[in-house]
Specification:
Elements: E1 11-19, E2 25-26, E3 31-35, E4 39-42, E5 48-54, E6 57-65, E7 68-77, E8 81-87, E9 113-118, H1 119-123, H2 130-133, E10 140-144, E11 150-154, E12 162-166, E13 169-170, E14 191-196, H3 200-203, E15 210-215, E16 224-234, E17 239-249, E18 257-268, E19 283-296, E20 299-313, H4 323-332, E21 349-364, E22 370-386, E23 406-424, E24 428-444, E25 454-470, E26 473-492, E27 497-499, E28 502-517, E29 522-533, H5 537-541, E30 543-546, E31 551-554, E32 562-574, E33 578-604, E34 607-631, E35 636-649, E36 654-655, E37 663-675, E38 678-690, E39 709-722, E40 725-734, E41 758-771
Parallel strand pairs: 1-8, 12-15, 31-34
Antiparallel strand pairs: 1-2, 1-5, 3-4, 3-6, 6-7, 9-14, 10-11, 12-13, 14-15, 16-17, 16-41, 17-18, 18-19, 19-20, 20-21, 21-22, 22-23, 23-24, 24-25, 25-26, 26-27, 26-28, 28-29, 29-32, 30-31, 32-33, 33-34, 34-35, 35-36, 35-37, 37-38, 38-39, 39-40, 40-41
C-alpha cells in the first residue's frame, strides 16, 4: 500500500505481526492502521505487511486482531524501517497495552486457504451485489439469473455449500435457488474473507465448499460523532445507490459504550445489453442496521439488528405461454423486440424481506482460564414470488394482483458458544465450541402446484480446533460432530392426506492443516478437510413451478447426504516487486446433488417451463487459482488472476454441467502518490477473458454453452482533502467496447445476452460532526 503527503515521501515500512507469547504464531489478516493518514494494511497469510511512499513524521500505529489485545502506540519514522509486533491474548493482564476496542473479526482456521478483500479493493466494488463484488478474487465466480440476481460460487460449488457469516452470524434464508441471492447489504462490511475449501469445523457441517465472512468496521472508541456517505451512479439501468452510516462513542462514566446506525437505498430500471433493453429487469432495495456495544477490558457485549428489503423484476423474455413459444425463445436467444427503458416494473417479480437480531457477549475467565463468547441470533426471511399470470386468473371475480404464487417464511434461531482456552505450554492455542440451529418454514400462496412442503429442522454441533507452532511450522487440527433432524409436513393430493416423513443424519468431520515458512518471502499452506451436507427440502420434495427461476423442478425423496473430501495447497511468494499466490485443489464429492436439465417442458395454466430434476452423482473437482501482482516500474503494476476448474461426473465418466469456464482477469495500473493536494491518483486498464465452457456432456442442456468472450474496461480515481478527511472519487467503465456476450453460469442465457457497457461513478465522503 502506498501513501504520502508530498513529493519525497519515499520511506518504506515493512513489518510482521505475531500472536501469543513464546509460540509466536503468524497473525494472518491483522489490521495495521496509521494515523493521522487514516490508512494502513492487512497482514498476508504469513503475518507480513508492507507500505511504501510514507512521509517522515510522527504516527499513531494501531495493530488489532480478534481475541488479542490491541497495540496502540506512537512511532517517529524518519527512514526505511521494519516493525515487528507481538500481540497477547485478551485473557492476559497487560497494563502496558491500551485496549481500544478495535476488533477485526477472523475465522479460526489459520491454515485454511483464504483471500481477504478490504480497503481500496473492496471500495472498488461498492454498489455491486455480494456475488458480483467477489468475482475479483481468483477461484470465485458468480451464478446469475439475469442482470440483477447473482450469488457467489467458490471452486465451482454454490448455494448452501457456501456458508455466509454476516457479522458473526450464519446467514439463513431461502438460499436453494439460482435466483435466490444472499439477503445482505455489502455496505455493512469493510472486510470480506473468502475461505476456499471445507470450513465445516468452525462454521457448520454444510460449509462444504467454503465460507464468506463479512465483518463490519470496528465501532469507535474515542468520544464523538462521525460517519461516511457512499454514492454510486451507474449508466446501465440508470441505477443509483446511496449508503451511509453515523457512529459515536461515549466517554466519562459511559466509557466503553459505542453505537452505529447504517442504511442503504438502491434503485435501477431496465438493463440494456449491447443491442437491446431487457424489459422488466429493474429492482428496488432499502436496507438498514443498528449496533449498540459496551466493552470493558475483561467483558463486553453488543446488540445488532438489520433489515434487508428488495423487490426484483424477472425479465419478461423468460416467460412463455406454450411449449412452441418457449422453444422459439431459446432458439432465438433474444427478446422479440428491442424493449425500452423505464423504472417501473411488474409481474413476474419477487420480493424479499430479511430481518436479523443478534445479541452477543464475552467474558475473560478468572485464573487465566481463557475467554467465553456467546451469541444468540434470530432471523426471519420472507420470500414472495409472483408469476407473470396469477395462478387463479381463470376466476375474474378475484383480484390476484397482490397475491404471490409462492410465499415462503423461514424462521431461524442460532446459538453459538465458544471457549478460547489459555495457551497450553505456551505453544498450543485453540478453542472449543458448540452450535445450535433450528429452522421453521411455512409456505402460503396460490401456486398451481406446491413447490416445497412446510418443514421444521434441528441441528447441533460440537467442535474443537487446536494450533501448535514450532520453528517454521504451524500445525493445526480440528474435529467436529453434527446432528441434523428434519420433520416434513407434506400434503399428498392423491390420497388427500398429510404425510410427515422424518429424516435423521449425523456425521463427524475433521480438518488438518499446516503452514511452513521457507523464508521471509516464501510460505506454503496445506489444508485437508472433510465435510457433509444434508439434502435440502427443495432437493427432496420439489414438485412445481419455481416462479422467479422460470423453471419446473422435481425433487427426489431418496437422496442421501452429500460428503466432501477437500485438499487445498497454496504457495505465497512476497518480494519488493512481486507477489504471487498460487493454489491447487482436488475435491471429491460423494453423492453430489445438482439440478439436471430434463430436456422437456411442463405446461400449466401459468405457462410453459423447462424442467429440472435433482440428481445425485459422485463428482471430482480439480482446479488452479493464480494471483500475480508485479511492479513493472516504480508506479506501474500488473495484476493478473487466473481461475481454472475441472469437474467430472464419475458415474457417467463425463464432464459435470454447471461448472465455471476458465477465467483470466488482467489489469494494468499506474499510480501517483500525490499531485498537489490530490492523493492516491490512479489510472487502470482491465481485460477479462472467459473461455467457452466446452467441457459439458453432449445434448445435456436446453441450449449449448455460449461462446467465450473478452471484456475491456478502464478506471480512474483520486483522493482529495475534505474536512480533515479524504474525499474519494473513482470513475470506471465495464464492457468498454459494448460487447455482445452471455455467461455460461447465467440461467437466463437461454433467452438473452448479458449487460452491455456500464459507466460507474463512486464517491466516498467521510465526515465528523463532533470529535473529542
Amino acid at each position: 500500500m502506498t501513501f504520502g503527503q508530498q513529493p519525497g515521501c519515499t520511506i518504506t515500512v515493512t513489518g510482521h505481526v505475531f500472536i501469543s507469547d513464546t509460540a509466536r504464531l503468524d497473525a494472518a489478516g491483522a489490521s495495521v492502521k496509521f494515523s493521522p493518514r487514516n490508512t494502513g494494511a492487512v497482514t498476508d497469510s504469513a503475518g507480513n505487511f508492507r507500505m511504501t511512499g510514507v512521509c517522515a513524521g510522527k504516527y499513531r500505529v494501531v495493530i488489532s486482531y480478534e481475541g488479542f489485545r490491541t497495540v496502540d502506540t506512537v512511532f517517529y519514522i524518519r527512514h526505511d524501517v521494519t516493525l515487528n509486533f507481538l500481540l497477547f491474548s485478551t485473557s492476559q493482564e497487560l497494563k502496558s497495552i491500551t485496549i481500544t476496542g478495535e476488533v477485526i473479526k477472523r475465522d479460526q482456521i489459520t491454515t485454511a486457504i483464504k483471500t481477504i478483500l478490504s480497503g481500496a479493493e473492496l471500495e472498488a466494488t461498492r454498489g455491486l451485489s455480494l456475488g458480483e463484488s467477489l468475482k475479483s478474487i481468483a477461484g470465485v465466480n458468480s451464478l446469475q439469473t439475469g442482470p440483477s440476481i447473482s450469488k457467489p460460487v467458490i471452486h465451482g460449488v454454490y448455494s448452501n455449500r457456501v456458508l455466509i457469516m454476516n457479522n458473526g452470524v450464519r446467514q439463513e434464508g431461502q438460499n436453494w435457488g439460482n435466483d435466490h441471492a444472499p439477503e445482505i447489504d455489502p455496505f455493512i462490511a469493510t472486510k470480506v474473507t473468502v475461505i476456499k475449501g471445507a470450513a465445516s469445523i468452525r462454521y457448520g457441517s454444510d460449509a462444504i465448499g467454503g465460507a464468506i465472512l463479512l465483518d463490519p468496521k470496528d465501532l469507535p472508541t474515542q468520544p464523538g460523532l462521525g460517519g461516511e456517505v457512499n454514492l454510486v451512479g451507474m449508466t446501465n439501468g440508470h441505477a443509483g445507490v446511496a449508503s451511509g452510516y453515523l457512529e459515536g462513542a461515549s466517554g466519562g462514566k459511559l466509557e466503553g459504550l459505542s453505537w452505529r446506525v447504517q442504511g442503504t437505498v438502491k434503485k435501477a430500471g431496465n438493463s440494456r445489453t449491447a443491442d437491446y433493453y431487457l424489459n422488466n429487469t429493474g429492482y428496488d432495495e432499502n436496507d438498514y442496521s443498528a449496533t449498540l456495544q459496551y466493552n470493558k477490558p475483561h467483558y463486553g457485549g453488543s446488540l445488532y439488528f438489520s433489515q434487508f428489503n428488495t423487490k426484483i423484476a424477472i425479465a419478461q423474455a423468460s416467460v412463455a405461454d406454450n411449449e412452441t413459444d418457449l422453444q422459439q425463445a431459446i432458439a432465438r436467444g433474444r427478446p422479440l423486440d428491442d424493449g425500452f427503458f423505464r423504472y417501473a416494473f411488474g409481474r413476474p417479480d419477487q420480493t424479499v424481506n430479511h430481518q436479523l437480531a443478534k445479541v452477543s457477549g464475552y467474558l475473560d475467565l478468572p485464573d487465566r482460564l481463557g475467554k467465553l463468547e456467546a451469541t444468540y441470533a434470530y432471523q426471519r426471511d420472507t420470500r414472495k414470488e409472483y408469476d407473470a399470470n396469477p395462478s387463479d386468473n381463470t376466476d375474474t371475480s378475484l383480484n390476484t394482483n397482490g397475491i404471490p404464487d409462492l410465499n415462503f417464511q423461514l424462521n431461524t434461531s442460532t446459538v453459538d458458544l465458544i471457549w478460547e482456552h489459555r495457551p497450553i505450554a505456551n505453544k498450543i492455542v485453540g478453542s472449543v465450541g458448540a452450535n445450535f440451529i433450528t429452522h421453521e418454514n411455512v409456505q402460503q400462496g396460490t401456486a398451481y402446484q406446491e413447490l416445497i412442503p412446510n418443514f421444521v429442522d434441528y441441528g447441533e454441533g460440537m467442535f474443537a480446533i487446536e494450533k501448535y507452532a514450532a520453528g517454521k511450522w504451524v500445525l493445526e487440527a480440528g474435529a467436529r460432530y453434527d446432528f441434523r433432524r428434519l420433520q416434513v409436513y407434506k400434503y399428498d393430493p392423491t390420497l388427500v392426506v398429510e404425510e410427515r416423513p422424518v429424516y435423521n443424519w449425523q456425521q463427524p468431520t475433521v480438518n488438518i492443516g499446516a503452514t511452513y515458512k521457507f523464508s521471509n518471502h516464501l510460505s506454503a499452506d496445506y489444508n485437508f478437510g472433510t465435510a457433509w451436507r444434508a439434502p435440502q427440502v427443495i432437493e427432496l420434495f420439489a414438485n412445481g413451478v419455481h416462479q422467479s427461476a422460470a423453471a419446473w423442478e422435481f425433487g427426489d425423496s431418496s437422496l442421501t447426504l452429500e460428503q466432501a473430501y477437500n485438499n487445498n495447497l497454496s504457495f505465497v511468494f512476497n518480494s519488493e516487486k512481486l507477489v504471487v499466490e498460487a493454489g491447487v485443489y482436488v475435491n471429491y464429492f460423494h453423492h453430489y446433488i445438482y439440478a439436471q436439465p430434463d430436456l422437456n417442458y411442463i405446461t400449466t395454466i401459468e405457462g410453459t417451463f423447462p424442467a429440472f430434476s435433482y440428481k445425485q452423482v459422485n463428482a471430482l473437482f480439480e482446479g488452479l487459482d493464480l494471483s500475480i501482482n508485479y511492479t513493472i516500474l516504480k508506479n506501474l503494476s500488473l495484476i493478473s488472476k487466473t481461475s481454472i476448474v475441472r469437474a467430472r461426473n464419475l458415474i457417467i465418466h463425463d464432464w459435470l454441467i454447471g461448472v465455471p469456464a476458465d477465467r483470466f482477469d488482467n489489469r494494468l495500473r499506474y499510480e501517483w502518490p500525490t499531485v498537489g493536494k490530490w492523493k492516491h491518483i490512479f489510472i487502470e486498464a482491465t481485460n477479462l477473458v472467459v473461455a467457452k465452457q466446452s467441457r459439458v456432456p453432449a445434448n445435456s442442456d436446453f441450449a449449448p454453452p455460449p461462446p467465450g468472450y473478452m471484456l475491456w474496461g478502464a478506471s480512474v480515481g483520486f483522493s482529495a482533502p475534505f474536512d480533515r478527511h479524504e474525499l474519494k472519487v473513482s470513475l470506471s467503465v465495464t464492457n468498454l467496447t459494448d460487447a455482445d456476450y452471455r455467461d455460461y453460469l447465467d440461467r437466463f442465457r437461454y433467452y438473452f445476452a448479458d449487460p452491455g457497457r456500464d459507466i460507474v461513478l463512486r464517491v466516498i465522503v467521510p465526515f465528523d460532526i463532533k470529535r473529542q
